[in-house]
Amino acid sequence: MSNNTATMTVPYRKASKAEAAVSDASLSVSTVESREPLLREALGETLRDIRTRCGLTLRELSEAAAISPGYLSELERGRKEVSSELLASVCAALGIAVSDLMVEAASAMALHAASPEMAAI
């Protein structure tokens, strides 16, 4: 059995700085767009949605939950992880169960994950 394989040499050309920058930018954009949100981001977004639906300001909710407005803001922006105790306090101040918040946040994550597939339909 003969093993004759032809190889072709392709000349190598180094990409220019502009080409590299465009390639890097497009890679980071597609990575960001396709990234599933972190749980803390989904929880924060859901907390903010529920707070605004309840007609509460950030300050009003922070006082009712006995946490600082700055910390609540960081939670809503998905910048801080939340403990179960703190989450229970915020949910109690909102008049909702922690499980309801978790279900709504999980639904938002599932919708985000499914959106590229749904767009293709």
Oligomeric state of the chains in view:
single chain
| Strand segment count | 0
CATH class of the domain at 39-119: Mainly Alpha
The CATH homologous superfamily of the domain at 39-119 corresponds to lambda repressor-like DNA-binding domains
Low-confidence residue ranges: 25-32
Keywords: DNA-binding, Transcription, Transcription regulation
Domain HTH cro/C1-type: 47-101
InterPro entries: Cro/C1-type_HTH, Lambda_DNA-bd_dom_sf, TransReg_Diox_bact_type
Protein name: Transcriptional regulator
Topology:
Blueprint: H1 17-34, H2 39-53, H3 58-65, H4 69-76, H5 84-94, H6 98-119
Helix pairs in contact: 2-6, 3-4, 3-5
Describe the structure.
The termini are far apart. The radius of gyration is 24 Å and the shape is globular. It has a domain at 39-119: 434 Repressor (Amino-terminal Domain) (Orthogonal Bundle), CATH 1.10.260.40. The protein contains six helices and no strands. It is mainly alpha-helical. Helix 2 (39-53) packs across helix 6, helix 3 (58-65) packs across helix 4 (69-76) and helix 3 packs across helix 5 (84-94).
